[in-house]
Design a protein that fits this description.
- It catalyses: D-ribulose 5-phosphate = D-xylulose 5-phosphate.
- By secondary structure, the protein is an alpha/beta fold.
- It has one domain: Alpha-Beta Barrel (TIM Barrel), CATH 3.20.20.
- The chain has an eight-stranded parallel beta sheet.
Length: about 230
């Protein structure tokens, strides 16, 4: 099982998005936070910017949709060039139908949980997904402190993935840094979003390599990853 590091463009300079996207070559995916000022109290970017980003970089786009009416919008992000589309279960009217639609369009389907949303009610839905995102901050802003209290939810989700023998990726997003990434990997995450820890560094590509090495080290000794 390989570690994946996804820098979040939210912490980049929006006036130089193409340059900032290519500054993290070597990253697995570029994480793109779409916010509508309704689902979260912040406004970022939409479909036209995702289309331009998809043309500007060879790194696949991991679009994290923090928007209302996501059943209607998510397919447009696949059309815009996203390789993975994450919708929030709190915003989706029909999560299974939406995941199937995203997959049918040829992208990876992913579902996110806000910190207060438990995983247990969605156990039967996991087989419909390619990735589950556990938010480790309240969605809306970069640069917030990691919520340690999310670690048991990460552990529990990893147990459910193992119990059902699924290939689902488990992503964490929010406050992931050199200080917290090992705890996330030990608990069961294998896909790590990092905004300020990457774009706040002098050398973003080196920050990606350092985070990957830390997470790989922690995963190699984690009980959940033994035998993978
Ligand atoms: O989705 C979000 C915030 O809502 C994230 O993707 C942030 O962009 C992560 O930023 P850092 O916490 O790593 O600075
Ligand atoms: Co995000």
């Amino acid at each position: 099982m390989a570690v994946q590091i996804n820098p979040s463009i939210l912490s980049a300079d929006f006036a130089r998005l193409a340059e900032e996207a290519t500054a993290v070559e070597g990253a697995d995916w570029l994480h793109v936070d779409v916010m509508d000022n309704h689902f979260v109290p912040n406004l970022t970017l939409g479909v036209p910017v995702v289309e331009s980003l998809a043309r500007a970089t060879d790194t696949p786009l991991d679009c994290h949709l923090m928007i209302e009416d996501v059943d209607r919008w998510a397919p447009q992000y696949v059309e815009a060039g996203a390789g993975s589309v994450t919708f929030h279960v709190e915003a989706a009217a029909a999560p299974v139908r939406l995941a199937r639609e995203i997959r049918a369009q040829g992208a990876r389907a992913s579902m996110a949980l806000k910190p207060a949303t438990p995983i247990e009610p969605y156990e039967d839905l996991l087989s419909e997904l390619d990735m589950l995102l556990i938010m480790t901050v309240e969605p809306g802003f970069g640069g917030q402190a990691f919520l340690d209290i999310m670690l048991p939810k990460i552990r529990r989700t990893r147990e459910l993935i193992s119990k059902h023998g699924l290939e689902l990726w488990l992503q964490v997003d929010g406050g992931v840094s050199a200080a917290t990434i090992e705890r996330c990997a030990e608990a069961g995450a294998d896909v790590f979003v990092a905004g300020s820890a990457v774009y706040g560094a002098n050398d973003p590509a080196a920050a990606v390599r350092a985070l990957r090495s830390q997470a790989s080290g922690a995963m190699s000794t984690a009980a959940w990853a033994c035998g993978h």
